[in-house]
């Protein structure tokens, strides 16, 4: 019965890879999706906290960068403190974040170690591989430099 075992293994792998139709993420606006939907684009995940002064200072740069480069980049935020519901929305409003903020930390799903320094911006290349981890506040130019091939 090795052939049946192989077929079952393949079916199981397909189910796991497709997530049984479930979404990988949900953002603060109720939008959901799968990270694989963003293959072909650069994906940035920015960790911030409402008490982090460098995070507060970089938010306008991130907002502008995401808006200006929406055709090739998707930017998600993650509240490092894990705030939910009204508190999360209050923090987003306080910082003026205009990009989607994920409800849950994607570190486990995307298989990377949660950062221990704030702010941190993780950059995934268009193939979905972790390309760089930028620690400290970023500017529109440092982000552009990080995604521009040499």
Describe this protein with a few key phrases.
7 strands, two-stranded antiparallel ribbon, 21% strand, 5-stranded mixed sheet, 37% helix, Glutaredoxin, alpha/beta, single chain, 150 residues, 5 helices
Write up what this structure looks like.
The chain is α/β, with parallel strands linked by helices and 150 residues long. It has one domain (23-147): Glutaredoxin, CATH 3.40.30. Helices cover 37% and strands 21% of the residues. It contains 5 helices and 7 strands. The strands form 2 sheets. A 5-stranded mixed β-sheet has the order 5-4-3-6-7, covered by helices on one side. It has a two-stranded antiparallel ribbon with strand order 1-2. A hairpin with a 5-residue loop joins strand 1 and strand 2 (32-33).
H-E order = HEEEHEHEHEEH
Provide the helix percentage: 25-40%
Structural class: alpha/beta
What would CATH call the homologous superfamily?
Answer: Glutaredoxin
Rg over CA atoms:
17 Å
Q: Please count the helical segments.
A: 5
CATH class: Alpha Beta
Quantity of strands, as a count:
7
Q: Major sheet, described briefly?
A: 5 strands, mixed
CATH topology: Glutaredoxin
The share of residues in extended strands comes to 15-25%
Q: Characterize the overall form.
A: globular
Which architecture name does CATH use?
3-Layer(aba) Sandwich
Terminal-residue CA separation: 51 Å
Mean pLDDT: 90
Strand order of the largest sheet: 5-4-3-6-7
Low-confidence stretches: 8-17
Number of domains: 1
């Amino acid at each position: 019965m090795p052939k049946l075992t192989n077929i079952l293994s393949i079916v199981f792998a397909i189910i796991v890879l497709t997530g049984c139709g479930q979404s990988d993420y949900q953002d603060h606006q109720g939008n959901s999706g799968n990270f694989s939907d963003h293959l072909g684009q650069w994906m940035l995940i920015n960790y911030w906290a409402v008490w982090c002064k460098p995070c507060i200072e970089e938010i306008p740069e991130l907002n502008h960068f995401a808006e200006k480069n929406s055709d090739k980049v998707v930017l998600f935020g993650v509240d490092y403190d894990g705030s939910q519901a009204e508190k999360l929305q209050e923090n987003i409003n306080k910082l003026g974040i205009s990009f989607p903020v994920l409800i849950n930390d994607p570190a486990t799903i995307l298989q990377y170690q949660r950062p221990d320094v704030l702010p941190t911006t993780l950059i995934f290349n268009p193939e979905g591989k972790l390309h760089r981890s930028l620690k400290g506040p970023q500017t529109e130019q440092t982000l552009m430099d990080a995604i521009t091939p040499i």
